[in-house]
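At this stage, I needed to go through a protein sequence along with its fold in token form, as given directly below:
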Amino acid sequence: MFEQLLSILTDPGALLTALAAVTAGILLGALPGLTGPMAMALLIGVTYSFSTETSVTAMMLIYMAGAYGGSMSAILLNVPGAPASAATALDGYPLAQQGMGGRAIAMATVGSCVGSIIAVAFMATLTPWLVEVSLMFTSWELLLLVIIGIIMAGGLSGNDPLKGLISGALGLMFAQVGLDDLHTHPRFTFGSHYLEAGFGLIAAIVGLFGISQVVVIMAPRKAAVRQTAASIGRVLPRWSDISNRFRVMLQSGIIGTFVGVLPGLGADVGGWAAYSAAKRTSKNPEGYGKGSMEGVIAAETGNNAVIPGSLIPMIALGLPGSAGAAIIMAALFVHGLKPGPTFLIDNVQLFDYMVAALMVGTVMMLVVGLTLAHGIIHILTIPRENIMAVVVALSVIGAYASLLQYGDVWMMLGFGALAVVLRRLDFPLAPLILGIVLGGIFDEFLRNALIISGGSLMPIVERPIALGLAIIAVLLILMTIPGVRRGISRLAKGGRRAASSPSGH
């Protein structure tokens, strides 16, 4: 790992790539509505011709810096640049109104970097261990893990678990279009030779995250944006702000990392989970929501820790922990690599390079973030029409450049239209993209498992690990049923009341 770190530090091209990715991620993340996954979707087609290391580094650092960049508009405008920064706005904007916007941005920067460092440390240590465990899995266990990942992504993202499951199932269905890998039999092609190659992964991702976001952003605004004073004051971390908050940063970093490991949750859930935990354990919980520096630190540490954390199951098990991790997984597919139990064995140097690149990117994020803080106010005033025109152009270029087919541009527009409809109906997109990315290995694991067992499903019952995973999958499905969730909630409340009542009654 130290060799890879040294190779990055002594390679001007690698340093320039990291600097460009971090800067672009911060700027795009700061602009309301432009998220890290959207920037990654636009980039995936452009990086097709790059080396694997350059492509993955750019994607990871844009994702990480984009989550942090959203904190700037959340603090200065009370409009989160990305969903991940929603919790940051609760205390960041009141601090800006009190003339402490610079201090809030400085502590958001420190918290984001600390969260990333904690998660990268977990990534470097947990991933090899998880790979050793996963090597005991057969196709049945891997198949069940994919199913659990889709169920968790569908059940835990959005307000309606059923809509999330439908979205995930829709993604799996899209992934089955094309020639089947074993007999090259056309599936759901309707006589179209173009569809025999399946839906283009890059075109689908660009359409889902790029085009749909343009339509959402260009919709009529409901309210005018509030803006703070042009002067935000001193943007440098103060030791007095940091010294008493190491516990909060450590706690939030750990929470964010393990939220990232769970499929489909994303950085916004990590931010809210860390914020809630910090509030519950704080000596001054009444200050939260009114301008608490501790609240800003907790939210930003938690949401940035999710980013490296979501890469842990992607690398070890082939299960991306977030939509952004799914796009990185798609980038690895484009370069001929397959994340999963054997990935670390065959590509240990690439894994070390990814860890080293995240470490270098974290340091750059600290420097670039503090440097751009004063100028970000002027960037936030750029008309959204100008930005969206560039996004549309990049979307078309990215979709076409991957395979040089005009059909991919139409496919991108089709997926963009589908995403707009799903958003209007409140269907989450994260399970859909996970389903599309995981659909290929779902088909492979299912086919291999049935061939080995002669078409029998008995190995699920006969293998203890497979049986345990199957039980977990069934329980997760049951938890998505509203009546079951209400019953469990009533039982939990009844248990708490019984535990708190006097023993004599």
Notes: Residues 147 and 278 are 33 Å apart (CA to CA).
